[in-house]
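Notebook entry, cofactor series.
This is the third protein in the set we're modelling with a bound small molecule. For this one the ligand is coenzyme A. I'm keeping the input format identical across the series so the outputs can be compared line by line later. Sequence and SMILES below, as received.
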Amino acid sequence: MAFTVRRVPVSRTIGLRQAVLRPQHVKVEHLALPGDDEPATVAFAALDTGDAVLAVARIGPEAPPSSLDASIPPGTPAWRLRGMATRPDVRNLGIGSAVLHAGIDHVISLGGGLLWCNARTPAIGLYRRADFITSGEEWVDPLLGPHVLMWRWVLPG
Ligand SMILES: CC(C)(COP(=O)(O)OP(=O)(O)OC[C@H]1O[C@@H](n2cnc3c(N)ncnc32)[C@H](O)[C@@H]1OP(=O)(O)O)[C@@H](O)C(=O)NCCC(=O)NCCS
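Returned structure with ligand:
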């Protein structure tokens, strides 16, 4: 399937975020994530030839949970990946991976650092293939299901 991955305003990711990640939230204000409006927060989308959104993710600066403190030299830039979603009818085509790698490339372009996310456990394979590792035990979010902390180093380009 033909698609391109581009940086987009965070607002363009909200529709897919709602449909895939938080269908229980009908109001846009419930879909906003802390930091969405920060200038350093960026979003990426895979777009088809008609400019329809196929997959999305957003990355913003955010310190990881303290459980990673021992792994990180003080002052290391840290970035959190959130809102990773692919439209159900176009999954398993590498589109999610392409969006994820656009985010990793963004961190590379800013000098690298630690990139982390709270991964839904069915998505662990996506992140593992992009060199993330799990940390600690799984936990269950009552609304969103089982998660695990995943992270990787991103070296500067
Ligand atoms: C997780 C999610 C974003 C993955 O999106 P995707 O576009 O299907 O991702 P990819 O196609 O890159 O990879 C997914 C699978 O397709 C396979 N795949 C990758 N490229 C492929 C290709 N060119 N052809 C066929 N299969 C391919 C991979 O083996 C992968 O399987 P695995 O994850 O079990 O290892 C998507 O399934 C989704 O939106 N899930 C619901 C929301 C969610 O859980 N989001 C993550 C929150 S942390």
